[in-house]
């Protein structure tokens, strides 16, 4: 086998035709330049016109057309010479292209006549053949430029990549220890092996070729070197066992070598842009590559197969790393963001979910490092900024003074106590890491904890008061106590605009005041606006909202009431329960988009949308900026991340829960002991004698009110009917609400336990009829529901009301069953079923076998956060053959918040006409807490029958 030698590497060598008669033709120095000038442009590894490749000797064709391409010793029989002379068709190069001279053709002919000796025919020396790169001098003044660095902690040494060489220096004193010289072109990457015995070096000349070398640090020589045709190498890595090397560069190809091999063991061409970074996971099973095609790709090292394409980035990706435990992939690049993915598989193609996306810098991120302990990330951007982050949540921990020029490399040294950055001017910059605590760790994706509030009913009746004029300025503020209810009027001032009324209250630090305006119930035209000010009349900060991701509205805007179809740019990087800020309004994400033609739903998921931090709902235009924000204390000084920080003051226009219409409601927590001013005005600055209002100031009385949305169920034996309960949460109560049932007749089974989850407003239950069930007599005790919850230390129980009539309907035209995916047979629910029958194996071949099941022992499914599982939906049809729809975004009835029916498409979950079963997917968001909850499905045909519920267990 002839060794593969790149022709491009020889094209700069000069030859003398005058010496032809005296010496044998040398392929490298004489033939290669001719082929490079006239042939290789169209016949190379990337563009092999006519399936002819002439840039690597091993890839020369044996036959072109029907004639041998090269016949050693016989130029006349060689198709190569005939094509170049034009004595055979097609002439090469084509007639409209530059043609070889007669001297060039004579060299080709003599080389063929002399036997067409291949490159490397001479005896092989002990050292690998040195690459033949052209001599390129560095730009004057750039000799000391550092283009990359790596750190060997055990040796306390740094490798500095420079033009044509690598300097190995002491990390403390920066004294030179060793040099690797004579490298072709600019050195783009250096990488110490895990045991620090070797140094991997990547270099090359743009547009010419690249080289990867493995340098033995003890013996001070190359163990092996590999040449790559056509372009330089920008990134390299080596596995921990020192056996496998990977490299990538501008030619978009990933090459993998065994350390002792001459040729790549794997060549992967999967990117559409240059490769800027490569990195093995700790076991060496997965290779990650970051590219200019705006993706990071994951490859199985053994097979070379692609495991996943991480396509969320919005611009070129310059950096990629694995977490020290190998479970996460971390990337960054020109879209100014850090992203973290959870690695899903080492061997099979599988989607690795995005875990974190964080806007990090105002300019592209050009370098990234992980601390030795794995707890910190460091990023450097094109503007010279350097930031340190907590790795687990990408929380900003510290920002250093900007470098004068962008960093070319980042390393943690001194056991992670110091950050080292290199710059293109040849300098090393050291940054001792501070021991200060990072910013607030509140997880924006976690549901809010139930509010701590005083006991219900502990507040005295508000004292009735009347407004006393003048009270139109802070100095004239009317003193009122609380609880109180003050009647007032917003009159026109002398300037023709509505006045402001000021009231003074005293509060101790931590006191919570519920401040409300009632005007609409008096038929008043007032559109109230209330503010709480300090004693000087200055606004008081309520919260600071730091933007962590930027976005904008796509497809269409939103009015001020809608909860659904919030279509946002880059929505894939957003998570449920995160706060979304736009034009002064703050909402919270409630449900993911369910396909390409949908958007987020925001809280509460139905009805008018809820706003947060006292902000007021407003309309939003197409293209309007929006931000994912995280709340910070009003006195916090957040480190800048390139995105804005919004300050929200204690003020409100319209009730955040939208129950009071245009009337205002505000919850105020006193930051300190003192006097506070309440300002009341019209939001439009209108006024008049009929602009009446009542101002109530009281202590919050957290409570709830639950109602039945649907009742009077018509149920067929063997299936169920659905009822919905909905809660109104008052004064900050956000805890779970348990639902109970009383007087349920024999033969009926309710899906209990049933609860409205913390932070949610609805629960959906079923009443299912056994085969023995009959319609209850009219004089039977009514079926009633009640609700209970813990408020503070007290359990509060309140009646909900009657469920209405339960009527058995004799209709067996359609029955629907929900079951684990390993079952595939109709189910008969029978209280007499034994445990052995419950656990019996059941055919899954669509046979007519029937499963008998105790209705009080429902099937169970187990799901983990971030996981997708399958379940089976089965229909028993009689005379109904049409399509059976089960809904779209709401198809999973009573699923825990954050768990949803996935992959439903534009038509939703359904069983097509004429079919009897369907497997479907259930996905849990990564943050879902451990819980157990009964859920069911509802067919939206034939009286809306429901399945028997399944118990879903979320387990960590």
Automatic annotation (TrEMBL):
UniProt region (Disordered), positions on chain:
429-482
The WD repeats lie at 226-267, 268-309, 320-351, 358-390
Q: Where is the composition biased (Low complexity)?
A: 446-459
State the coiled-coil residue ranges: none
Which Pfam families does the record cross-reference, listed alphabetically?
PSCyt1, WD40
Supply the InterPro entries for this chain.
Cyt_c_Planctomycete-type, WD40/YVTN_repeat-like_dom_sf, WD40_PAC1, WD40_repeat_CS, WD40_repeat_dom_sf, WD40_rpt, WD_LIS1/nudF_dynein_reg
Where is each Cytochrome C Planctomycete-type domain found?
39-96
Record keywords, A-Z: Repeat, Signal, WD repeat
Q: Which domain of life is it from?
A: Bacteria
Which residue windows does the record flag with biased composition (Acidic residues)? 460-470
Q: Which Gene3D superfamilies match?
A: 2.60.120.380, YVTN repeat-like/Quinoprotein amine dehydrogenase
- Name the residue ranges with Polar residues bias: 471-482
Signal sequence, renumbered to the chain: 1-21
CDD domains in alphabetical order: WD40
Cell cycle as a keyword? no
> How is this protein named in the record?
WD domain, G-beta repeat
């Amino acid at each position: 086998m002839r060794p593969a030698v790149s022709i491009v590497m020889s094209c700069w060598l000069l030859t003398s035709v005058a010496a032809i008669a005296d010496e044998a033709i040398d392929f490298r120095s004489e033939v290669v330049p001719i082929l490079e000038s006239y042939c290789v442009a169209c016949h190379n590894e990337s563009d092999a016109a006519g399936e002819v490749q002439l840039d690597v000797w091993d890839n020369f064709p044996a036959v072109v057309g029907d004639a041998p391409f090269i016949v050693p010793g016989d130029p006349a029989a060689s198709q190569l010479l005939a094509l170049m002379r034009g004595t055979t068709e097609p002439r090469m190069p084509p007639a409209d292209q530059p043609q070889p001279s007669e001297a060039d053709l004579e060299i080709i002919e003599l080389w063929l006549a002399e036997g067409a000796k291949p490159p490397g025919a001479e005896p092989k020396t002990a050292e690998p053949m040195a690459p033949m790169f052209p001599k390129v001098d560095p730009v004057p003044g750039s000799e000391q430029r550092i283009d990359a660095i790596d750190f060997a902690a055990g040796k306390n040494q740094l490798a500095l990549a420079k033009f044509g060489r690598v300097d190995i220096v002491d990390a403390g004193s920066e004294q030179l220890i060793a040099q690797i010289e004579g490298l072709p072109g600019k050195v783009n990457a250096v990488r110490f092996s895990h045991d620090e015995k070797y140094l991997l070096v990547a270099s090359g000349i743009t547009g010419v070729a690249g080289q990867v070398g493995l340098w033995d640090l003890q013996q001070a020589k190359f163990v092996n070197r590999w040449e790559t045709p056509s372009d330089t190498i920008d990134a390299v890595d080596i596995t921990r066992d020192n056996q496998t090397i990977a490299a990538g560069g501008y030619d978009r190809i990933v090459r993998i070598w065994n350390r002792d091999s001459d040729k790549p063991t794997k060549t992967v061409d999967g990117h559409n842009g240059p490769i800027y970074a490569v990195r093995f996971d700790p076991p060496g099973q997965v290779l990650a590559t970051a590219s200019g095609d705006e993706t990071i790709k994951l490859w199985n090292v053994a097979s070379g197969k692609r495991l996943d394409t991480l396509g969320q980035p919005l611009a070129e990706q310059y950096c990629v790393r694995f977490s020290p435990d190998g479970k996460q992939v971390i990337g960054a690049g020109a879209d100014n963001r850090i992203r973290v993915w959870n690695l899903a598989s080492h061997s099979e193609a599988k989607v690795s979910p995005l875990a974190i996306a964080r806007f990090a810098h105002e300019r592209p991120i050009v370098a990234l490092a992980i601390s030795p302990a794995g707890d910190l990330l460091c990023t450097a951007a094109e503007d010279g900024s350097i930031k340190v982050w907590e790795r687990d949540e990408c929380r900003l921990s510290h920002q250093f003074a900007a470098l004068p020029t962008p960093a070319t490399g980042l390393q943690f040294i001194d056991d992670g106590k110091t950050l080292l950055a290199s710059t293109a001017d040849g300098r090393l910059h050291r940054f001792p890491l501070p021991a200060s605590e990072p910013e607030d760790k509140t997880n924006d994706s976690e549901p809010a904890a139930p509010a701590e509030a005083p006991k219900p009913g502990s507040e005295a009746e508000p004292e009735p008061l009347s407004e006393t004029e003048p009270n139109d300025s802070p100095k004239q503020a009317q003193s009122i106590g609380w609880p109180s209810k003050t009647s007032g009027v917003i009159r026109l001032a002398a300037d023709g605009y509505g006045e402001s009324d000021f009231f003074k209250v005293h509060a101790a630090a931590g006191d919570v005041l519920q401040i409300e305006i009632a005007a609409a119930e008096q038929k008043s035209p007032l559109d109230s606006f209330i503010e709480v000010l300090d004693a000087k009349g200055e606004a008081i900060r309520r919260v600071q909202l730091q933007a962590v991701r930027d976005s904008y509205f796509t497809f269409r805007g939103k009015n001020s009431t809608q909860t659904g179809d919030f279509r946002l740019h880059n929505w894939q990087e957003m998570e449920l329960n995160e706060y979304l800020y736009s034009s002064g309004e703050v909402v919270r994400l409630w449900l993911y988009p369910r396909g390409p033609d949908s958007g987020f739903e925001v809280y509460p998921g139905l009805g008018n949308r809820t706003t947060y931090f006292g902000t007021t709902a407003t309309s939003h235009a197409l293209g309007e900026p929006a931000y994912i924000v995280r709340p910070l204390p009003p006195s916090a000084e957040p480190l800048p991340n390139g995105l804005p920080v919004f300050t929200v003051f204690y003020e409100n226009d319209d009730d955040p829960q939208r129950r009071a219409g245009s009337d205002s409601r505000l919850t105020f927590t006193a930051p300190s002991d003192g006097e506070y001013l309440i300002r009341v005005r019209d939001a439009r600055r209108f006024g008049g004698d009929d602009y009446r209002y009542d101002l109530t100031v009281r202590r919050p009385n957290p409570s709830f009110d639950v109602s039945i949305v649907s009742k009077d169920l018509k149920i067929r034996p063997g299936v169920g009917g659905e009822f919905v309960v909905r809660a109104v949460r008052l004064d900050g109560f956000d805890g779970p609400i348990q639902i109970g049932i009383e007087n349920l007749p024999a033969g009926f089974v309710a899906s209990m336990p049933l609860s409205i989850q913390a932070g949610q407003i609805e629960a959906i239950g079923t009443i299912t009829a056994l085969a023995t069930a009959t319609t209850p007599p009219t004089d039977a005790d009514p079926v009633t529901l009640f609700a209970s919850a813990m408020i503070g230390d007290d359990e509060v129980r309140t009646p909900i009301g009657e469920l209405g009539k339960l009527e058995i309907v004799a209709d067996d035209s359609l029955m629907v069953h929900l079951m684990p995916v390993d079952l595939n047979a109709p189910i008969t629910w029978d209280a007499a079923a034994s445990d052995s029958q419950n656990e019996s194996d059941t055919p899954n071949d669509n046979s007519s076998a029937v499963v008998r099941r105790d209705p009080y022992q429902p099937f169970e499914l187990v799901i983990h956060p971030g996981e997708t599982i399958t379940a089976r939906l089965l229909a028993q049809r009689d005379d109904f053959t049409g399509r059976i729809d089960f809904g779209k975004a709401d198809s999973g009835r009573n699923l825990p918040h954050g768990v949803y029916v996935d992959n439903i498409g534009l038509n939703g979950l359904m069983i097509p006409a004429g079919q009897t079963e369907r497997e479907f997917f259930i996905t849990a968001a990564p943050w879902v807490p451990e819980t157990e909850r009964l859920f069911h499905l509802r067919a939206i045909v034939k009286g809306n029958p429901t399945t028997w519920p399944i118990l879903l267990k979320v387990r960590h």
